[in-house]
Design goal:
Blueprint lengths: L4 H11 L26 H11 L1 H23 L6 H12 L3 H11 L2 H18 L2 H19 L5 H28 L3 H25 L12 H4 L4 H16 L14 H12 L2 H13 L6 H22 L14 H14 L1 H15 L7 H17 L8 H20 L7 H22 L5 H33 L4 H30 L19
InterPro entries: MFS_trans_sf
Keywords: Membrane, Transmembrane, Transmembrane helix
Protein name: MFS transporter
Length: 531
């Protein structure tokens, strides 16, 4: 029986373990046998493995995109409070007096304080646990709150249901960001940034259009529907999250080096840094509804702005992108998140209310200007995907420039302007916020991105506190009686807010343009948990 030369050579190598053959060097020939075939380098196996998993990776990326375009709208739709018509109908049905009506307003507004407290806690959780089950848990809580509102029969029950909506939204928001970052691709992250800006711009107009009309026969209004608009969006988002959970990678995630343990601990401390200020701001925002004057509420809002800017500038000092000379550092990401919170929902929300007031009874809010702004936000964010690294910082500055232009244009009009005039004003706002946010996330670590996200909901609350206080102050000074006088008072307060927003945009642009100190860098990492 003839012997196999390759087997003989293998036995010889096993018999003499001191003999080694380096990769790339010809193997010695024994007894005229052909050189033994050497195993390919390890990285070649990795390329083959990635090629084999190409279809699965694309499917997971598509699932993450589906999560982004469904979860973020579901989160944003929890922010509006239902409108005056729904509150009046709820007051009549629940037979509330003046004190009970004030409690009703606080109950409907419980979503945002719950959300801003939940986001930093969920950010820490999503760095310790896989993002997919955390996302599913948050959406289940959100959907449960939406369903519970339909059965609300008292103010405390309504407050608990609205708080559950905010809690679920606050859990789902960081998890969706981590899923986008885990793909390690520019497109999912840019789409997440553009979608966040878009939904904050369009949330109030969409909610106003979804507000139920009085029944022609009885005149009754289904106020519960106004406090839980479009629950189908949250249900579809939950389905996308479950699909993403099923499509998770089977390969285990790379274990972090032992040297990263201290960095992880420091990151957890940094992510928890906004929790206490956010909780304090939420508490004060609720307390100010107990008879505080508009001036006192403005003082609270001013303290909130200063606190958020300080947290944005100091919180990311130890987590700077490795290429900080060409890309925005983590502090710029935090500053832009604050800008998106201050200048998206608090700008378009009151404007949508003015447009509806100008339309009068039976009129509605034209969706064209706000839909165009939302589309511009997504388009501006996606335009940053092809930008070279050195263009990211310039894109942040250009985005802030568009925001300032939009504020100046909006100052020249009011709620009575036509749809195309408003479109011309709001499109630069959407494009600027989407571009700046997507560009600021370039080269930013997951910890820095989550830290910045923790500052966005408090900024939304602060912006709302400013604009509503300014409008309330104008209302108290004017003491309007007719509908025209009421509209003028609200418009005057909104104009003062636009001037304030322009000043804030310039200040935030200057803060985002500050370069990080040289010599301190950190490796940009993607999200934690499973991929």
């Amino acid at each position: 029986m003839s012997s196999d030369p390759s087997r003989d050579q293998s036995r010889d190598r096993l018999a003499d373990p001191t003999r080694t053959v380096e990769f790339g060097a010809p193997a010695p020939v024994q007894n005229g046998a052909a050189p033994a075939r050497q195993p390919p380098p390890e990285h070649e196996h990795e390329h083959e493995h990635e090629h084999d998993r190409g279809d699965g990776s694309r499917a997971r990326t598509l699932a993450v995109i589906a999560v982004t375009v469904t979860v973020l709208p579901a989160v944003a739709l929890t922010l509006p409070g239902g409108g005056h018509g729904a509150l009046d109908a709820a007051r009549d049905e629940l037979r509330l007096n003046d004190a009970g009506a004030a409690d009703l307003v606080r109950a409907t507004g419980a979503t945002l304080p719950a959300l801003l407290v939940a986001v930093p806690l969920a950010a820490v959780t999503v760095r310790r646990l896989p993002a997919r089950p955390v996302l599913a848990a948050g959406l289940l809580c959100l959907l449960g709150g939406l369903v519970a509102v339909r059965y609300a029969g008292s103010v405390p029950f309504l407050a608990a249901a609205r708080a559950a909506q905010g809690l679920g939204a606050g859990i789902a928001l960081p998890a969706a960001l981590v899923l986008a970052l885990e793909r390690r691709r520019a497109l999912p992250v840019a789409l997440w940034a553009g979608t966040l800006a878009a939904v904050l711009l369009a949330a109030m107009p969409v909610a106003l259009r979804a507000a139920p009309r009085p029944d022609p026969a009885t005149g009754a209004v289904d106020w519960r529907l106004a406090l839980a608009p479009y629950p189908q969006v949250a249900a579809v988002a939950l389905g996308a999250a479950l699909l993403c959970l099923l499509l998770r990678d089977t390969a285990p995630a790379d274990a972090p080096p032992a040297a990263r343990g201290a960095a992880r601990s420091a990151e957890r401390g940094q992510l928890l840094l906004p929790a206490a200020p956010a909780a304090g701001l939420g508490f004060l925002a609720v307390v100010t509804t107990y008879g505080w004057s508009p001036g006192a509420r403005l003082v609270v809002a001013g303290v909130g702005v200063v606190t958020l800017l300080g947290l944005a500038l100091t919180g990311g000092r130890d987590d700077i992108a490795a290429n900080a000379r060409t890309t925005p550092d983590s502090r710029a990401c935090a500053v832009v998140m604050v800008a998106v919170g201050l200048l998206a929902f608090p700008v378009t929300g009151p404007l949508a209310g003015l447009v509806q007031a100008a339309a009068g009874e039976g009129g509605g809010v034209s969706p064209v200007p706000f839909a165009a702004a939302a589309c511009a936000a997504v388009a501006g964010a996606l335009a940053t995907v092809r930008l070279p690294p050195e263009g990211a910082r310039g894109a942040v500055h250009g985005g802030f420039g568009l925001v300032v232009v939009a504020v100046l244009l909006t100052l020249a009009v009011d709620g009575t302007a036509g749809r195309w005039t408003l479109t011309a004003c709001l499109v630069p706002l959407g494009a600027g916020l989407g571009t700046a946010l997507a560009a600021s996330l370039r080269g930013t670590s997951a910890g820095a991105a989550l830290y910045g996200l923790s500052l966005c909901p408090p900024a939304i609350l602060t912006g709302q506190l400013i604009v509503l206080s300014l409008q309330a102050g104008q209302w108290q000074r004017a003491r309007p009686e007719s509908a025209a006088q009421q509209f003028y008072a609200l418009s005057a307060g909104y104009r003062v807010w636009l001037i304030t927003a322009g000043v804030l945009a310039v200040a935030l642009a200057a803060a985002a343009g500050r370069r990080a100190p040289s010599g301190r860098t950190s490796e940009a990492v993607s999200g934690g948990g499973e991929r």
